[in-house]
Amino acid sequence: MVLYSLLFFTFLLRFVFVMTAVETIDGQRKCSSIGCLGKRLAPKILGTSPSSVPEVLYEVFEEPSSLVNEKNPGPDIPQSLEDFMTEVRETRPDARTFALKLKTMVNYLEQRTRTAKIQEYLYRHVASSSIPKQLYCLTLRLANEHSMNSAARMQLPNPEQVPYLVDNSFFHFVLASDNVLAASVVANSLVRNSLHPERVVLHIITDKKTFAPMQGWFSLHPLTPAVIEVKALHQFEWISKGKVPVLEAMEKDQMARSQFRGGSQAIVASDSERPNVIAAKLQAMSPKYNSIMNHIRIHLPELFPSLNKVVFLDDDIVIQTDLSPLWDIDMDGKVNGAVQTCSGDDKFVMSKKLKNYLNFSHPLIANNFHPEECAWAYGMNIFDLEAWRKSDITQTYYHWLQLNLKSDLSLWQLGTLPPGLIAFHGHVQVIDPFWHMLGLGYQENTSLEDAENAGVIHFNGRAKPWLDIAFPQLRPLWAKYIDFSDKFIKGCHIRDS
User: Fold this and answer.
1) May I ask which residue range the UniProt record assigns to the signal sequence (predicted)?
2) Which domains does the chain show, CATH number per domain?
3) What is the DSSP track for 381-394?
4) Does the model's pTM come out above 0.85?
5) 209-227 residue pLDDT tens
């Protein structure tokens, strides 16, 4: 809040300073900044003519600004409004000198505000990209348990349940994650809120290094009567056959980002970029944007060739209702059932259109899409795999990934959503926002009551609920699905708050 107060104060100073400046130049000897402001506003309110503003003020303000050394701004730059006004009263400068000093001080305050915002973005980037030691501990303990305890190496699912993995009369959910704790919350919330847990099949996809801890956790914490499958990517026959487009695309994407984006320190060192642009570039460097877990959803038809329909879940969501009605939604021949993100009561979160993700200054984007078209969200999606197999969605996805790489990442900068918006264009069936509430990870103004009444809540953004930077009023919605008395949770000092 201190940062945003400083930001507001900086822009307020522009207005107050100019009003004060004009009063001082007009000959007012005893006038506080607030008093001057009142004297300038009063004529407008009462309909009288205000005094003229010297033309020199406009001339000075329109001149190019020079940067100020923040660490050593020099004695000529006042450090507060009070110092500024005291100096003005004592020296009685002419209009040009006054305007120059005023402009220099405002520029200095703006530089400080910009630096503070960029530092905040950098700290949040570091905090959100790091693995908390508690999660690292949990992974190591479970890996050790997997190697020493046969009960932690149980086949998942058991042999009697294997036929259910390809039975389309069951409700099939897919979760791709390398975070054991996050996956456990998704699984617990899914099964606990299901009205038909005996018909729930959760397919958990993980990477090779996380397979043992993930299998260990779900072997020792069964969610009977639901069926839980834990499978590493290298165990899928389709992946092991040879070249996999998603892996090749990730390698090229990582090389391009390294070449054209530089490190985080290089990004924040830029003096010309706006803070929000710097924030976007930092976010593009987040490990999750180059994680196989984030890219693999584009190959669901190949990974599950026998299934007709699945619901894909991100690992930063919490399920708060029975999801079986999703299978009753008429997809109208479309492939992707998703919540649109361009309308809703929360204007901060639900105001996303294609122009928020794609670069419409590039002709390839401008000639193929409309900037005002609604975007939609990943996180909780219904995928009709039968309809998907009849389309060219996956090929379109990789075609545009290649175009973006060839254009030095100028079509979009981060994540799998932009190419997803393109690939699924015309293949999206809009579903009720009740099924997917977004924004719990990047803005703290989310109504707790609204969040509690949503079917699925999504902690998309940097403030993940397992991080220290999580919003404390929202974290309990996630934490209530963790048993903090569990020996692994307790042993790694994972706490409720």
Assistant:
1) 1-27
2) 2-128 (no CATH), 133-491 (3.90.550.10)
3) EEEEHHHHHTS-HH
4) no
5) 999 999 999 999 999 999 9
